[in-house]
Amino acid sequence: MFFDQLLNQTNGPLLERVLSFTAARHKLLAENIANADTPDYRQKDLSVDAFNQMLQQRAAESDSAPPGTVGFDDIDEAITYPNNGILAHDGNNVAMEQLVSDQAKNALMHNVIVELLRQQFQQLQAALKDHVS
Q1: I need a surface site. Which of 8, 17, 115, 120 has the fewest CB within 10 A?
Q2: Could you tell me which residues come within 8 angstroms of residue 121 by beta carbon, excluding any fewer than 6 positions away?
Q3: Interior CA angle at 20 toward 16 and 21, to 5°?
Q4: Tens of pLDDT along 17-72?
Q5: What is the pLDDT of residues 104-118, one digit of tens each?
Q6: How far is residue 39's CA from residue 20's CA, in Å, rounded to a whole number?
Q7: HEC letters along the chain
Q8: What is this structure's pTM?
Q9: How far, in Å, CA of 46 to CA of 28, rounded?
Q10: How far apart are CA 20 and CA 92, in angstroms?
Q11: Is the backbone of residue 43 left (phi > 0), alpha (psi -120 to 50) or beta?
Q12: pLDDT, position 90
């Protein structure tokens, strides 16, 4: 109970949700790359802008609420089917260059969030050991 309250008072739940989003998006981007030669395949993605907007709204709610009362678990990511790629002769709209670029950006975001969570847990560990630096 104490640890649950301690973790929910930090930005840990928000970071966990972003980490989950980047993992789900990475999976979809890899699926798109794997299906680059599949006829009639339409690429899928998760809307980063929509997710960020929902996350910002929830963070604003969290700022005005008592610590740990507003969660981030119910923020949904909806699969979209972007039409920004060129439709090939086989009906496929996968744009490989864009996918690789999106995957690299997504991986960087994922790594940043992992590092932020790691640092947060190190601080909690130091506080619990009573060796705050």
Answers
A1: 115
A2: none
A3: 120
A4: 899 999 999 999 999 999 888 888 888 889 888 888 888 888 787 667 655 555 56
A5: 999 999 999 999 999
A6: 30
A7: CHHHHHHHCCCHHHHHHHHHHHHHHHHHHHHHHHCCCCCCCCCCEECHHHHHHHHHHHHHHHHHCCCCCCCCCCCCCCEECCCCCCCCCCCCCCCHHHHHHHHHHHHHHHHHHHHHHHHHHHHHHHHHCCCCC
A8: 0.78
A9: 8
A10: 28
A11: beta
A12: 67
Tokens of 132: 């705050």
Cα angle, residue 4 at apex, residues 110 and 64 outer, rounded to 5°: 80
How many Cβ atoms from other residues are within 10 Å of residue 102's Cβ? 21
Share of the chain above pLDDT 90, in %: 26
Return the pLDDT at 8. 57
Paired strand residues for 45: 80
